[in-house]
Amino acid sequence: MRSWGIGRSTSAVAASNRKPTRVDALLDILKWPGILSPSSELRTPLVAGLDLASVTLCAITGVLVARSKQMDLVGLTVIAIVSALGGGTIRDVLLGKLPVFWVAEPLGVATAMVAGWLTFLVFRRVRVSSGVFQFPDALGLALFTVVGAEKSLTLGHGWLVSALMGVITGVFGGVLRDILCREVPSVFTRTELYATASLAGSLVFVFSRGVGCQPMISVVAGICVVVLLRLAAICWKWKLPCFSDPDRP
Predict the structure, then answer these.
(1) Which of 87, 103, 141, 159 has the CB geometry, 3.0–4.6 Å to 173, for a possible disulfide?
(2) pLDDT tens profile 13-67
(3) Pairwise CA distance, residues 36 & 129, whole Å
(4) What is the largest distance, in Å, between two alpha-carbon atoms of the chain?
(5) End-to-end CA separation in angstroms for the chain
(6) Which helix (H) or strand (E) holds 227?
(7) Structural domain spans, the chain
(8) Quick count: other Cβ atoms within 10 Å of Cβ 207?
(9) Interval 173-182: pLDDT, tens
């Protein structure tokens, strides 16, 4: 036992004296900026209200998208919840933040359910243009993106992971919705920039927080980048190139 302890301490000293390698340097870069304190700007009544409004909007648009699938009320309720809360749920599971946010604070899931039911009743026989929801959808995407990136930063994850968590929070509710509706997720096909807008805003938010900008400036900058890039993509039909079969017409 005594020799084991000596060997263990010797190996620990050797590990501590090991010279940093290029891999270590790369890992340090990816782990930047380290643990940040939570931003109080994302915990105000205004942001909480906008968050619930975003949940409501995602639930409504999810139900409207699924209307062509002839689902009953139970199916549409599931679609509403998944559309509104799916991205945040995946984020919390990946970050090991359990129980997930809507289990700890069920107001979000209740809001999504009610929004889905009201959409079922109001729009059951009424057609509505998708253009009505373009600006609110862009704002909801931006808010979800910033909130997701912020949660990852406060848990101590680096810039890359935090930026991706922002995208997952903002985008993957719609991805899960499309999968449940047996469709190829729309963000992966020939649509105007959506996930790209989320990633751009998430990176702006993460880097501005990392270099020490005021939290409010970081929040506003991240939201503005997502909203403006998304709306510009819709207006001027900006799309990413697709990987397609050259033999297909």
Answers:
(1) 87
(2) 444 566 677 676 777 777 777 767 666 666 667 567 778 888 998 898 888 888 8
(3) 42
(4) 80
(5) 73
(6) helix 215-236
(7) 43-236
(8) 18
(9) 999 999 999 9
